[in-house]
Amino acid sequence: MNEHIVRSYDEELNTLSAECARMGGLTESQVADAITAVVKRNQDLAAAVVGRDDKLDLAEREIEKKAIRLIALRQPMADDLRRTVAAMKVANNLERVGDLAKNIAKRTLVIIESDPLTPLTRSIERMGKLVLTRLTSVLDAYSRSDLERALAVWSQDDEVDEHYNSLFRELVTYMMGDPRTITACAHMLFVAKNLERIGDHATNIAEIVHYQVTGAEMIDARPKTDGLTG
CA-to-CA distance for 215 and 225, rounded, in angstroms? Predict the structure, then answer.
């Protein structure tokens, strides 16, 4: 294979990884803004998150198209094939995270029509910060092919579950104590569930990084807290 073809091939691989990293940045912004919108009861920000979701859908389609083209034309082997497949898988998880952020924003538009539930909002904020930190950390691990960092995210999977279980109990207590809060609490519960699922996607990406770097699937079961999560 001549030097020009090798260089062109490397550029295609690097472009694919760079587009994935850019999509990761967009996804982080969507999650951060969705959390801020629900905590600050910001209608305009929630509407903006919903409106921006199409950008992530488009980014995923572009990454998938380029990865399939690269596999078809270049027939990558070993590390290069793993890198190409990993980009597709990461993009797919990011697109799903974007959908969850959009869902949080849609719920926010309903929640802000009810009276504030300040203690619950604080719990949502704490859980949101934890999930966003995990997402940022795992995307950094992906960009740097940092196995140690990816494994650190993977091993803390149960922390998000603990927050969700605690928040679930808090919400049920509120609804039982005052039936007028049921509608807002139900939407808050969906917000919490969406945050928990974003945490699961961060763990998925950690597993993808492990596969990309080592060539092996994760064989250990994910650390899980006994409780309400499935």
Answer: 28
Please, which residues have CB within 8 angstroms of residue 107's CB and are 6 or more apart in sequence? 38, 187, 188, 190, 191, 194
Q: Is 42 left (phi over 0), alpha (psi -120 to 50) or beta?
A: beta
pTM beyond 0.85, yes or no: yes
Name the residue among 229, 97, 88, 81 with its Cα closest to residue 166: 229
* 225 lies in some domain: no
- Over 80: is that where the pLDDT of 71 sits? yes
Task: Tell whether 71 is covered by a domain.
Answer: yes
| Structural domains of the chain, count | 1
* Nearest-angstrom CA–CA distance, 78 and 80: 6
pLDDT digits (tens, 9 = 90+) for 126-184: 999 999 999 999 999 999 999 999 999 999 888 999 999 999 999 999 999 998 999 99
Q: Which domain holds residue 174?
A: 3-214
